[in-house]
């Protein structure tokens, strides 16, 4: 049993060992699963245990916590039969402990204290009792614990923006504060930052420019990665620059020209892709249709703009969410165009869905298991649409297709939005808040994917990813 | 890490024109606040915020003195001095031009005054500047109340108020001084039409701490900028340009659609200066494109684009009350000295330096010292009562003196039996025996004869006007 508990227990082992050594000189066998309260119990227990075989144990039992009474009763039994050898007594004791430990092990798994509260090495009993006397912070379990972990990882660590170019610092600041939303906007922002980096770059002496430039750019990008702000589209964008295929003997000037040209080419590609998606979308939108869109997507915005200009008339229901104003942005831009719009919050989407002909969702990326990553809330819309038989079209360029595959809402590569609870609610003991930026729409809710190449059925995502065509050469495996 | 992003300029050539009484003989940047020279505060702020080098502008006549004082401070900053001639009587913007001669800077520039004391971290302001892509960011804080007591005659000095016009996102729409207007202040209709709701604040002090975008900096140091004073003329001008028609973000497709939103004034009608400005404020195409696709919009209910389609955006950050001081008037000088004496405030403003109340070189005779700061080598006699005072170094305070709420600079001699309340005694002054001074200001090197009783006066060898 000890072996399986392995790494988790080792720190507690050490503590326990120390405790035991202090109390007496036989310690190594006693490894117990620990929760916070148990730390108070453990040293005392051991102190008692060790004292067990010795007849002169009077003071300890008085101070014990209730849990230990089990042992105490045991001990009184033993007290009677003190003729038993100390070895046998230890034997019985150990068996009892192991039984109790097994029972507690399960509880311990579930109610493991979060790292913040967890580990102050309590060397003395005094220190431990002090801990207990502090106002008890409830232990976070399951979801809450994951959120706390995630929040910590996403937290702004002001370490090491050392060699990072100011343009990247600015980019990161905007992305972190949610002032730069939408993957296309972020890609263009990245390109702008890269352009500044490239223009300011000076190749050091006697170093091959290719390798150094790649490293330099990678260092900037690593700053974004460290903040968990990298997404599929961003990765593809950087790969498309093909920095590592620069010729070895190229001069700094030429290299800059080449890379700048690559940046321009990529921006053009983005714009062209958006136009192609617009064309493909035209097949699906009939005159006079009522469309539903969710939050802001520049891809959809552009497509609808093109459609409107070519004379198609349609009406739009813009569904927005309380926490970010993407919906309002979409609404104001559409109404500027002259499109008839309605605005709803997501909680009313059920009401409007029977009247809607089709739903357009802008995608952040498409996953290898054919589900769509979109702004948080897309899954709800897709679900409601599905239940009412309304087709849902995901609009996504192929450059956003990814090898990852997640189920349901995922934390791994997600970002947290800024907190939305009022300050006085935030500090309540059992409260933790979580507002995720992205959301996964399962494959079964999506009718088709509108890409710049063609309109794909949902299950074709892996085919596109694996296809050897030149466009998809870029789709090497991301992290 | 901040160094590769910002260049810092510290303006220490001010003559302290609003505090002539004490700046006659001493450079403003060396006035003691809490027994540290005034310039120490902005320098230590920069040091703890991670800056590695500073450019300090001083007057040539004060250069040696200031350099010596700064070197004595022992900061890890690399301080580069630039001097300007006092006789030239340059304004702040002109002074900046002189500095800029030494090279073209690619970074954004921070311009700050030597009289700026704050306990706020610059993180928030820098983050604001970065995330909004601001052309200019400024730092404001609530002014000290006008009723603070000031030594010297009670004159009705019309305090020089700044009028700051902000919108709800802390965007800086207009910045003027109350002195520039007679009775009325006018706000352009364009501003109100575009924003709908604006706040005009008159109790905010401008800390003279600006972060300037590189393009704005290039304009300021170029020949096209003919204004002399940064805060008085140049910055208000720049802030006004936010509402020029040339300030539009122009996307390739939407050129034709622009006119529908604005009053139909042609670009040519904009003044020449505006054109000159926008020549420097070049367009960043990709930034515009980013903003076009951006899902975030801080004015979602307006039909304008991000940041209201403005290329140039000026922002303000407002610090909480009591967090900052601008020491350019006698009132603020006295107030900050008072505040700094409290231990918790000292902690805030002078983070790196532990509070040493009474310098150990002062010896230990019987005396009562409360809430005060005493500098090095000051001799304090017996029976002396000191309460809430800042006493400089090398002073001689003889026996039975009572000091309350005073600011005493270096080298002062106070003879026995004197009672000073709320006074400001400048360098090397001499106060005779058994004087009783309330709220007086004693000029440097002046000897106050014994048994003087005075209240709310300036005691000086030179006849100075009481205005």
Word description of this protein:
- Chain A: Pfam families: IF-2B (PF01008).
- Chain A: Residues 26-48, 66-110 have a biased composition (Basic and acidic residues).
- The complex is a heterodimer of chains A (479) and B (467).
- Chain A is of the alpha/beta class.
- Helices cover 51% and strands 9% of the residues of chain A.
- Among the domains of chain A are: 158-268, Four Helix Bundle (Hemerythrin (Met), subunit A) (Up-down Bundle), CATH 1.20.120; 281-475, Rossmann fold (3-Layer(aba) Sandwich).
- Chain A has helices at residues 2-23, 36-51, 60-63, 69-80, 86-110, 115-118, 125-133, 142-154, 166-176, 183-200, 209-226, 232-240, 252-284, 298-309, 326-337, 349-352, 378-387, 423-426, 461-466, and strands at 290-294, 315-320, 340-345, 358-362, 365-366, 372-375, 392-395, 438-441, 448-450, 455-457.
- In chain A, strands 3-2-1-4-7-9-10 form a 7-stranded mixed sheet.
- Mean pLDDT of chain A is 74; it is low at 1-8, 31-83, 112-135 and 472-479.
- Mean pLDDT of chain B is 82; it is low at 254-266.
- In chain B, the strands form 6 sheets. In chain B, strands 1, 4, 5, 6, 8, 9, 10, 11 and 12 form a 9-stranded mixed sheet that branches. Chain B has a 6-stranded parallel sheet with strand order 14-17-20-23-26-29, with no helix packed on it.
- With 467 residues, chain B is an alpha/beta fold.
- Chain B is elongated and about 80 Å long.
- Chains A and B meet through α9, α10 and α15 of A and α5 and α10 of B.
State the shape of chain B.
elongated
Outline of chain A: globular
**Approximate strand percentage of chain A:** 5-15%
| Uncertain residue ranges of chain A | 1-8, 31-83, 112-135, 472-479
Q: How many DSSP E strands of chain A?
A: 10
| Number of continuous helical runs of chain B | 12
Our estimate of the beta-strand percent of chain B is 15-25%
Which structural class matches the secondary elements of chain B?
A: alpha/beta
Let me know the average pLDDT of chain A: 74
Considering residues with a beta carbon less than 8 A from a beta carbon on another chain, report the largest interface and each chain's count.
Answer: A-B, 39 and 28 residues
CATH architecture of the domain at 281-475 in chain A: 3-Layer(aba) Sandwich
The computed structural class of chain A is: alpha/beta
Oligomer: heterodimer
- Arithmetic mean of pLDDT of chain B: 82
Family (chain A): Belongs to the eIF-2B alpha/beta/delta subunits family.
Protein name (chain A): Translation initiation factor eIF2B subunit delta
Organism (chain A): Cloeon dipterum
Keywords (chain A): Cytoplasm, Initiation factor, Protein biosynthesis
